[in-house]
Each structure stands twice: as structure tokens, then as C-alpha cells.
Specification:
Blueprint (H helix, E strand, L loop, with lengths): L1 H15 L1 H30 L10 E7 L11 H7 L6 E16 L2 E10 L3 H5 L5 E2 L15 E4 L1 H8 L9 E4 L2 E8 L15 E4 L3 H4 L14 E6 L5 H18 L1 H4 L3 E6 L7 H39 L1 H9 L4 H35 L17 H26 L4 H15 L4 H32 L10 E7 L8 H16 L4 E7 L10 E6 L11 E7 L3 H5 L3 E4 L13 E5 H7 L9 E4 L5 E8 L14 E5 L7 E8 L3 H15 L5 E6 H44 L1 H9 L4 H30 L15 H27 L3 H5 L3
Parallel strand pairs: 3-8, 5-7, 14-19, 16-18
Antiparallel strand pairs: 1-9, 1-10, 2-3, 2-6, 2-9, 4-7, 5-8, 6-7, 11-20, 11-21, 12-20, 13-14, 13-17, 15-18, 16-19, 17-18
Helix pairs in contact: 1-11, 2-9, 2-11, 2-12, 9-11, 9-12, 9-14, 9-19, 10-13, 11-12, 14-19, 14-21, 14-22, 19-22, 21-22
Length: about 800
């Protein structure tokens, strides 16, 4: 009964000043909403994980090697040896990502899927939504059982959720596969953020792929997961599997030398233990940023409650004098703050829902579609409710404690006089405004640093001058129609026909473009220099066609470019960049020199030296790089790059039409403009800049509202003082100066604190910035100026109201 009475009274208090109440609710709702939105991303990526029965008994099994990768995948032959350790493991499964061409109604599209061992779903304890999972016999003989399970999302999209899909056939990479089941919606993939369209038994890997991995002990592309037997500890399993790893290293020294087995609890793995720590750090930083926005929003609620408590001082004092307990008053005041917080939480949930819907439609520049389930599940709802309640209690408790301890005699004797004497002593309210300004300063400085860094990154010379063009990725090996000879001929025709298109001034094919997500590297042995075993130098490399350097505008420092005569019948040739030339042949010309690429590679002659460029990232130091002729180093997975003098999208559409005319079933993985390709490397900087800018501007808006509220409240309580000053001769300019000084002193203190914190914390951003220092003077001067301008605007509005006070009316006030 008392609770309902408190709630009714709280609603009446909100109705007394509805505008201020609405502003407070909206302010806090924005803070809660952005926190819930970001938490939904963290929840989807880091917290949900892969569903499994009794996950505490599951372990991820990794192979570490001499290349320094402690948590690397394993080979399938190694998996076969490890799965025999049945005294510590009740089962061991294997999984790998797989991309295939799906043929449907004369069209071909690339799909992302996974190959898994027959026991994989049983190992996790995951049951199919429809049909069955793979049978033991489908996991024994390579290529003997062409079956497939469909991903739940693909089943819904492609087949409309039709249950009669079981028994039907679909074509992947030119092979007909029978659908035997559909995976549940709770298992979109074993890789967070991605969605598997299909699942294949691992024994179909070699039948559908050019990559023959089932018998290659040195081909490490499979991730392993095991289930511990009851009573077996992680340490015991680690000891036994580690011993097996040592036996394999001794038995197969060419492929397993120095390789060790490492076990990690399954629940502690998100992507890979090598990168999970950085992901958790990034998520923590992101949550800290939105927590700053919530802090600013919470300050507005606290200021509103403090203002109300000051206005109700006489009421509270009278209730205490009449016998009300202090606890009863605190409960009433905290109930009012909780009501504001719960209303803000409900509105914040709607804001989070709208924000997550926008995020779902956002696709980062990746070759496979990202599929994050950002639904507001129980964990997100609980987080939002807890956040709102905690904010309400924290924001309401301090004002409640302060208001419930008044000086009874003084307040009852002359409440108005007390207010008049205490208007300057708004200690907690002033501290809240200072905190708001300080936090806004930190956020805005961070945003400005990232925006300046982004501008510098866009001006970095990548080593090529092609900024307008079209990029198309495709794979000739998936359709089973092109062998190496047919593939080379098809690529030659593609380049010739695309070069003939209007506005095109160059075209070439390459294994991958610089500043993409693909990296290929090999160890090299330089002729005349003694081999250094495990310490052999490593070099990034790519296969390119004739015309590649002209198309991308990469100048040759020395020698010649590739031509059509650099084919399989000729001697192997290569072009190195200037860094590689200086590293391998210091002080001498590399032309005519030879090197061996990879352990079993043939000797290759250097025929040219290309200008250095950026290959992995815009901020990298010069690194050695090597180009090979695609005619001698053929791969079915290639990228067509086109230089154009006309509109990029127009050229891209023309190129797609030309490819479709040549082969309508060609599996095209991705097509984009050159600007979009370059955006891949700029994506982290761009996202950091825009997120910080959004949070900073939101924080600035909320801080301006808070400053406006404090100054407005102060002006309203000093009406009589202003009237007296004007009656004895003060002019309006002096009144304006008085009010502005009060607001800008708070801003100045907040700026000083914020700049100090930003200077201390900006060092953490040094590695993320391009071309500017973490203490960039332009940023640290420009942000305070902008913030002062906004603060002046927030202060001038109530100051102008004070200037218009009628002295006679003011003297009669209160």
C-alpha cells in the first residue's frame, strides 16, 4: 500500500514540472539506449557462444608450431591420430570453413559453409531442426556419401522453410548433394558473427575442393573440439594429448617438427585465444565509452532531483517536524528517482531496438556476409533493467540523503532566505556539471583524434595511383569447368574483352589486391646465400597478369614487367619490390639473380624491381614483396581489377555484364569499386571515428542540457537578488556577465579536468592513429574552443532571461 502511495506521489511530482521531467527521461533514455545497443553487440559476439550440452566438459584442441602460432588449426591426419585417445576423450570432432558455388536456375552464387566430422553435432549435443545429422558411415570414405545439411537461415531464405526439402538435391561446386537435415536456428555457425548456409561431412572436402587436405599432414586447416571423459581433468587430457603430439613430431619430422598440442576450455574461446584478449579489450573500451555517455545523462537526472529537493526543502522539513521518519522520506525520494529511471529504461529499450535494427543492416567490407543476431534477448533485457534501476538508485540516493537532513529551525523560520543565501552553494550540482563537461571533453578529443587520423590515412600513398576502378573476385575452380589451361585462356579473354569496354584504360588479374584481407607469404632462399633453416627470410607474394603494373600505376624502378611469354614453358621469373631488392642484394642490382620460393620451389629469376607500396596496412613499415606471373603460378581464385576514367559503379556494372555474357554460371564472390576496396583498411579507423564522434556529440548535447538546467535553476532562485542589483543601478550587461561567469567557471573547471584526462589516456591510442600524434595540438585546442561555444549558447539563454527581469516585480518575488 505504501509503495502505491509513493508511486502516485511520484507521478504527481513529475506532473508539477512536466517539461523538465520529460527532458530528464529522454536524456537518461539516450544514455541507457546506447549502452544497451553496444551491449547487444558484445552479447552477440562474445557472450552467446556456440550452443552445447555440458559445455564445461568441452575443450578446444590447437596445434602450435615454429612459426609462432600457439593456437593454430590441425591437419586431418593429426586429427585421426588424436581422436584415438579415448581414455581421456569421449569424442573428438573437427571443423573447417568452406566456400562453395551454389548452382540454382542457371545462376551461380558463392555460399559460406562448414565441413565437420560425422560426430560433430552429437559432440556438441545439438539436434537438427529438421531431418538428421551425419551418420557414422558418412564419415569414413572420402567422397562416397554426397549429403549436405542446410543452415537454418539458408533453408528459410532459399526454400521458404519447406519441410519437403529433405531428400532433394542441391548442386555445390558442380556436385549433386542430397539434403538430409537442417541445423537449428541457435547454431548459425561455429564462428561468431557469420552464418553457415550449409554443412558438409568432412569426407566430402576433397571431392568438392581443389584443396586436397584429408591426406596432407602438413595442410593445417581444421579446428578440433573434444569432450573430456567423466572424471578426467583438463590437465590430464593435456598431458596425454601433449605426449601424442610429441610422438607425431618424432614420427613425422618434416611436417610436425616442434609442433605441440594445446588444450583450452571451450567456454573460454570466442574466435581464437590469440585474438580473444584483444576483442575483450576492444569490447571493454567500447562499453567504457558508452558508460561515459550514461554518466553525462545520469548527471542530468541527479541535477533534476537535487533541484526538486531544494524546492521541496520546506515541505520535507515540515514532514520531519510532524514526525515522519528519515527512512520514510528517503524511500519516497528514491521511489521518484526509480520511476524516472524505469521510464527512461523503457524508452531506452525502444531506442536500443531501433539502433540494433540499423546495425543489423550494416555490412562491413568482408568477403562473407556478417550475420549478427542483435535481438534483445533475456541477457540484454536484464542488462537494461539492471542499468536503469542502478542509475535510479545512485542518482536518487544522494539527493534523498541531502534533502532528508535539513536544518529544521532555520528552514521553517525563513526558507526563502536560506535559499537566497545558499544559491551559490550548489556543490553537488556544480560537481555534476563539471563531470559532464570533463567527460564530454574526453569523448570529443578522442573523436577528433580519430577523425584527423582518418583524414591522414586517406592521404597515405599506398604505392599505386589507381583510385578509380572496379574490382571483381571470382573462382574458376568451383564450377569444375576450368582446368589450369582452360583457366588461363579464360582469364586472358576476360582481360582482353574488359579492356575494350568504353572508358576502361587498363585491366589485369591478380591473386589478391594490396590492402585487402588476403595475405600469402612464403620463406625464400636466395641463391649464393647459405640456407638458414627455420630462420629463412619470409616474403609476401602474389601472382599477377601482364598489364598489372600499368593498370595499378605501380612504377618499375628497374628491369621489365611480365609479358605473355612468361608462361609455363619458359623459365620461372619474378619481380621484387625495392625493399626486397635492398634486403636480399644490398648494394647490387637484383636483375638476373635467383631465389627459391617455398621449401620445394624451383629457382626463379628476378627480371624487375617495382616501387614499394603498402600491402597489409596503411601504417606498416616497408616490407619485402614479390610478384609472380599468373601464367606460371596459376590459381583458379583470382581478382579482376579495372582502371577507368568514367563513373566507377557504371564501369562495375559493365564488367559484370561482360563476365555474365562469357559465363553466366561463373561464381562471383564479390564485386566492388576501388574506393570500396580501399575502405577495407580504413574501416577500423572510420568506425572508431564515427562511433566516438556520435558518442561525443551526444555527450556534448546532454552536457549542454545539464549546464542549461543548472544555470536556469540558479537564475530562477536569484530573481530577488537580480531585482535588487538592477534597482540600485546595475545595468543589463553586468547581469549578463554575472550569469555567464557562473556558468563558464564550471565549464572551465570541467575543461581542465577533461583535457588532463585526455592527455593521460591518449597515449593508449598512439598505435591506432595515422600521421598524427596522440597529443595533436590542433585537436587539443579546437575541441575546447568548440565546447566553450556550445557552453556559451547553453548559458546565454537563461542569462538573457535574467536581463529581462523587472526590478519591481523581482522585489515582490517570494
Amino acid at each position: 500500500m505504501d509503495v502505491m502511495q509513493d508511486l502516485r506521489f511520484a507521478f504527481r511530482q513529475m506532473a508539477v514540472k512536466p517539461l523538465l521531467s520529460v527532458l530528464a527521461v529522454v536524456s537518461l533514455a539516450l544514455g541507457v539506449g546506447v549502452n544497451s545497443s553496444i551491449f547487444s553487440i558484445v552479447n552477440a559476439v562474445l557472450l552467446r557462444g556456440v550452443p552445447a550440452t555440458d559445455p564445461d566438459r568441452l575443450v578446444a584442441v590447437y596445434t602450435s608450431g615454429s612459426e609462432g602460432l600457439r593456437y593454430a588449426p590441425s591437419s586431418y591426419p593429426d586429427y585421426r591420430d588424436l581422436r584415438e585417445q579415448r581414455d581421456v576423450l569421449s569424442g573428438l570432432g573437427s571443423q573447417s570453413a568452406f566456400i562453395a558455388a551454389f548452382e540454382n536456375k542457371g545462376r551461380t552464387q558463392p555460399l559460406f559453409g562448414e565441413v565437420v566430422t560425422g560426430n560433430f553435432f552429437d559432440l556438441l549435443g545439438v539436434r537438427p531442426a529438421l531431418g538428421r545429422s551425419f551418420l557414422p558411415e558418412e564419415d569414413r570414405t572420402p567422397g562416397a556419401h554426397p549429403v549436405v545439411m542446410l543452415g537454418y537461415g539458408f533453408w528459410q531464405k532459399q526454400f521458404g522453410g519447406d519441410r519437403s526439402v529433405l531428400g532433394q538435391s542441391i548442386a555445390l561446386n558442380g556436385t549433386q548433394l542430397t539434403v538430409v537435415g537442417v541445423t537449428p536456428a541457435i547454431l548459425p555457425s561455429t564462428i561468431p558473427g557469420l552464418r553457415a548456409d550449409f554443412w558438409l561431412p568432412i569426407q566430402m572436402n576433397d571431392a568438392l575442393s581443389e584443396d586436397k587436405a584429408l591426406d596432407a599432414r602438413g595442410r593445417r586447416s581444421f579446428f578440433l573440439v573434444g569432450r573430456l571423459r567423466p572424471g578426467v581433468s583438463l590437465a590430464q587430457a593435456q598431458a596425454q594429448l601433449g605426449a601424442v603430439g610429441a610422438q607425431l613430431a618424432a614420427q613425422y619430422p618434416e611436417t610436425n617438427k616442434d609442433r605441440k598440442i594445446t588444450l583450452v576450455p571451450w567456454r573460454k574461446v570466442t574466435f581464437n585465444p590469440a585474438v580473444d584478449g584483444a576483442l575483450v579489450g576492444a569490447a571493454g573500451m567500447l562499453m567504457a565509452l558508452v558508460a561515459m555517455v550514461l554518466l553525462i545523462a545520469s548527471s542530468n537526472i541527479a541535477n533534476l532531483l537535487l533541484a526538486r529537493a531544494n524546492d521541496r526543502r520546506q515541505e520535507i522539513t515540515l514532514r520531519l517536524a510532524m514526525g515522519a521518519s528519515r527512512g520514510r522520506l528517503i524511500r519516497q525520494l528514491v521511489t521518484e528517482s526509480l520511476l524516472l529511471a524505469l521510464l527512461s529504461g523503457a524508452l531506452g529499450l525502444l531506442i536500443a531496438l531501433a539502433a540494433t535494427r540499423l546495425l543489423v543492416n550494416f555490412n562491413p567490407p568482408l568477403p562473407v556476409p556478417v550475420s549478427l543476431d542483435l535481438g534483445l534477448d533475456g541477457r540484454v533485457l536484464l542488462f537494461t533493467l539492471a542499468l536503469a534501476l542502478a542509475t535510479g538508485v545512485i542518482c536518487g540516493l544522494a539527493p534523498a540523503l541531502q534533502a532528508s537532513r535539513p536544518d529544521l529551525v532555520t528552514t521553517l523560520k525563513d526558507g526563502a532566505a536560506t535559499l537566497g543565501r545558499n544559491y551559490r552553494k550548489l556543490g553537488l550540482r556544480n560537481l555534476l556539471v563539471v563531470a559532464q563537461v570533463a567527460v564530454s571533453t574526453v569523448l570529443l578529443i578522442g573523436a577528433a583524434l580519430f577523425l584527423r587520423s582518418l583524414a591522414h590515412a586517406q592521404s597515405v600513398d599506398p604505392g599505386f595511383n589507381l583510385r578509380r576502378g572496379a574490382v571483381v573476385d571470382f573462382n574458376l575452380g568451383l564450377g569444375r569447368k576450368y582446368g589450369p589451361a582452360e583457366g588461363r585462356n579464360f582469364l586472358r579473354q576476360v582481360v582482353e574483352r574488359v579492356r575494350a569496354l568504353p572508358g576502361v584504360r587498363g585491366a589485369a588479374v591478380t591473386g589478391h589486391l594490396p590492402l585487402g584481407i588476403s595475405i600469402v607469404s612464403e620463406k625464400v632462399q636466395v641463391e649464393g646465400q647459405p640456407p638458414r633453416d627455420d630462420k629463412q627470410p619470409e616474403i609476401d607474394l602474389v601472382a599477377v597478369s601482364p598489364g598489372y603494373f600499368e593498370t595499378l600505376g605501380i612504377p618499375l624502378v628497374e628491369g621489365r614487367a611480365f609479358n605473355e611469354h612468361d608462361d609455363p614453358t619458359a623459365g620461372n621469373v619474378a619481380i621484387v619490390n625495392a625493399t626486397a631488392a635492398h634486403l636480399f642484394w644490398p648494394g647490387a642490382s637484383p636483375l638476373g639473380k635467383r631465389l627459391k620460393i617455398g621449401k620445394d620451389g624451383a629457382w626463379t629469376e628476378v627480371v624487375g624491381v617495382a616501387h614499394d607500396g603498402k600491402y597489409r596496412s596503411l601504417g606498416e613499415e616497408p616490407r619485402p614483396f614479390l610478384y609472380r606471373s599468373y601464367l606460371q603460378d596459376y590459381s583458379p581464385a583470382m581478382t579482376l581489377v579495372v582502371a577507368t576514367d568514367v563513373d566507377e559503379p557504371q564501369t562495375l556494372r559493365a564488367v559484370r555484364r561482360e563476365l555474365e555474357a562469357m559465363d553466366s554460371t561463373l561464381p562471383v564472390f564479390d564485386s566492388k569499386t576501388m574506393s570500396q576496396h580501399l575502405g577495407i583498411m580504413l574501416f577500423p579507423a572510420r568506425m572508431g571515428a564515427w562511433l566516438l564522434a556520435a558518442f561525443g556529440l551526444l555527450g556534448l548535447l546532454l552536457a549542454a542540457v545539464g549546464l542549461y538546467g543548472v544555470v536556469s535553476y540558479s537564475v530562477s532562485k536569484r530573481t530577488r537578488e537580480v531585482g535588487v542589483r538592477m534597482a540600485i543601478g546595475a545595468h543589463r550587461g553586468q547581469i549578463l556577465q554575472l550569469v555567464l561567469r557562473e556558468g563558464m567557471v564550471l565549464v572551465g573547471i570541467g575543461l581542465a579536468v577533461g583535457i588532463g584526462c585526455a592527455l593521460a589516456g591518449s597515449r593508449l591510442l598512439t598505435s591506432l592513429l595515422y600521421g598524427i600524434g596522440a597529443n595533436d595540438p590542433l585537436v587539443f585546442l579546437g575541441v575546447p574552443v568548440a565546447l566553450i561555444a556550445v557552453a556559451l549558447l547553453a548559458t546565454v539563454i537563461p542569462a538573457r532571461r535574467a536581463m529581462r527581469v523587472d526590478p519591481m516585480a523581482a522585489l515582490r518575488y517570494e
